[in-house]
Amino acid sequence: MSMNELDVDKSFLKKSTLFNILGTVLKICGPLLTIMLARIFGAGEFGIFVSTQGLLLTIARASTLGLDIGLRWYLPQNKLHGRVAYNGIMESFWISVAVSLFITVVIIVGSFTPLISDELPYYAISLVFYSGMYVLSSSSEGNRKPWISIFINDFVIAVMAPLVSIVLHYLDIPHALPFGLLFGQVIGFTLHAKAVRKQFKTMPVIPQGRASKELVMYSIPLGLTVFVGNLLQRSTLWMVLFFLGAEASGVYALMMTLANGLQTIRNGFNPIITPVVSGMDESRLKTDLKPVYSYCVSMATMIQVIIGFFIVLFPEEIMSIAGKSYVVQPMALGILLFFQLVVTFFGMVNTVIDGIGKSVVNLKASVIQLLTSVVAGFILIPQFGLLGAALSMLIYGIVSSVYCNVYLLKRSLQPYSSKLWIDIVWMVLLLALYILINAQVVTLTMVGKIAVYVCVLLLLGAQFLFYKRKF
């Protein structure tokens, strides 16, 4: 029985990985347009935009109360417990919309007082679409169709929002940045709504009952985890804004945007792992967790390494696309890159913890991360600037990874396969290249950089074909 179930999981993982790889090509479009935003609007305005958008994302995530991510775990349980397949979706949707609508009204009313800026209400209009879209997106992921979210979130929205902002800017329409953001969210919300309706044709718009206690009790710690995680992601940027000013925050925001291209790879695998682990009983966790998790980590790391080598080899060229004012402490970009590699290879175990229903553990890990980030940021950013900001993120990434892995070891769960040694080798090679280039031990011409990158692509391509046959 276990082998049959594992074969089904393998088929799902391979299909999802293929969509993730194809989606990587699409994901490049969003960051490229974001770079154009930085160039067009300038470092100061761009830095404020990214900081405000980060605040908006944090509020939107909080408004879902964790029910959106809880659906990734809850929907696979519907079949096991004999519930209708769509149980929990619309219940979560209307709760999230109601909370976000209330917050939107508070922001709009507050804008008539000195407490809230006049610009924030233009951003707040997007809140309802953000929170509703989170629930609908996670519904597809919980139903084992993560490629829908990959296409809509990482391509359609990522492209439409900055593209519309650029068009509005050249048409001299005011508030181009928040209106572009709103347009992207409306398009994404509409597409997700149609996708969910297609999957659950008999699902009523108005649910007959309330969200189940099981879903709520699982989701609330998860929601707090995500809220703290969003604070965590934005806290470093806000500290850069506080200590170094708007222009420095604009430069750092662009670096984070580029490095977060690696994060989207990891995020693409999160909704793949959680539903699979959620469907495993204790016996399967002992036998099937290792191959499932190791395959996902290997594929995610491989894709990230491809992007990572490009960033390490061409950091100044990438940053200069946005303008010469953005070429500041490019070494910080490399550190952000390694932060993403660490939290993917060692930190993706948090999806396993969510899958086994222990969302409180991830909440504790996130609180520890936030405290570490704030302390490290206050010490390092004033002294080392953007380099210190990047180091503070790397430190809290390592701390969180250690905490989560120790927890799994205490539960006698070891998700790492010995086959992952090759991925560690790639990470070490990337780190070595980064050190050699930035210490100016090795100086490569443009032709040399291109030659190195082509060799990396060929070797990784051969690794992918070999590993695909072995899994």
UniProtKB/TrEMBL annotation:
<feature type="transmembrane region" description="Helical">
    <location>
        <begin position="361"/>
        <end position="381"/>
    </location>
</feature>
<dbReference type="InterPro" id="IPR050833">
    <property type="entry name" value="Poly_Biosynth_Transport"/>
</dbReference>
<feature type="transmembrane region" description="Helical">
    <location>
        <begin position="326"/>
        <end position="349"/>
    </location>
</feature>
<keyword id="KW-0812">Transmembrane</keyword>
<feature type="transmembrane region" description="Helical">
    <location>
        <begin position="148"/>
        <end position="171"/>
    </location>
</feature>
<feature type="transmembrane region" description="Helical">
    <location>
        <begin position="92"/>
        <end position="114"/>
    </location>
</feature>
<keyword id="KW-1133">Transmembrane helix</keyword>
<feature type="transmembrane region" description="Helical">
    <location>
        <begin position="450"/>
        <end position="467"/>
    </location>
</feature>
<keyword id="KW-1003">Cell membrane</keyword>
<protein>
    <submittedName>
        <fullName>Capsular polysaccharide biosynthesis protein</fullName>
    </submittedName>
</protein>
<keyword id="KW-0472">Membrane</keyword>
<feature type="transmembrane region" description="Helical">
    <location>
        <begin position="387"/>
        <end position="408"/>
    </location>
</feature>
<feature type="transmembrane region" description="Helical">
    <location>
        <begin position="292"/>
        <end position="314"/>
    </location>
</feature>
<dbReference type="GO" id="GO:0005886">
    <property type="term" value="C:plasma membrane"/>
</dbReference>
<feature type="transmembrane region" description="Helical">
    <location>
        <begin position="177"/>
        <end position="195"/>
    </location>
</feature>
<feature type="transmembrane region" description="Helical">
    <location>
        <begin position="215"/>
        <end position="232"/>
    </location>
</feature>
<feature type="transmembrane region" description="Helical">
    <location>
        <begin position="238"/>
        <end position="259"/>
    </location>
</feature>
<feature type="transmembrane region" description="Helical">
    <location>
        <begin position="420"/>
        <end position="444"/>
    </location>
</feature>
<feature type="transmembrane region" description="Helical">
    <location>
        <begin position="48"/>
        <end position="71"/>
    </location>
</feature>
<feature type="transmembrane region" description="Helical">
    <location>
        <begin position="21"/>
        <end position="42"/>
    </location>
</feature>
<feature type="transmembrane region" description="Helical">
    <location>
        <begin position="120"/>
        <end position="136"/>
    </location>
</feature>
